[in-house]
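Before a colleague's protein record goes any further, I have to sign it off. I want your independent view on whether this chain really folds as the tokens say. The record follows directly below this note.
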Amino acid sequence: MKYLNLLLICLFLISCKNDTSSTVVDDTENNELQSDTANDETQQDDNVAQVADFLKTDFLKDELSYMTENDRQFQLVTMDLNGDDQDEYFVYFNSPYFCGSGGCTAVLLDSDMKVLTRFTVVQTPVIIRQEAVNGYLPIIVYSDNSYRQLTYADGTYPTNPSMIESFEYEKQEGDQVIFDNDLQSKATYPF
């Protein structure tokens, strides 16, 4: 039995020997992936800074004095909603200043930081459909205990989802959840 244990230990030690002389590693793909990730992170940092500046100096400048530091935070998703190859900015606020019993405030900005829609009483999940209507992708939100599909018309989306007729949501191929029910797992940024 001693010999068997000794033999197993020797085999284990021999198999752990690190011989790199014949190993060739091609890191080209890995380096490209790291570069793309770094570019994405830099772009996200730029987007966050741009949105935070807009919130402080324009959109919420008259309300800042009423907010606590905890209130001054947002979550952000960027995506092209109208097929113009320019991202829109979906900003979700989930602090006490912006939320009530019916939901929270959100704002949709175009690529030039112009307000497309200021939403009230939005609850998660927030889902983007992949088939455009009136040139923009529909947004599905949960509001007043029901799903509501917000369709772009006349230069904006409906501002109060609870006023839109509810519907039975059925997941379609390509539906993208941009804010789910676990908001704590999504990055939150100060402004």
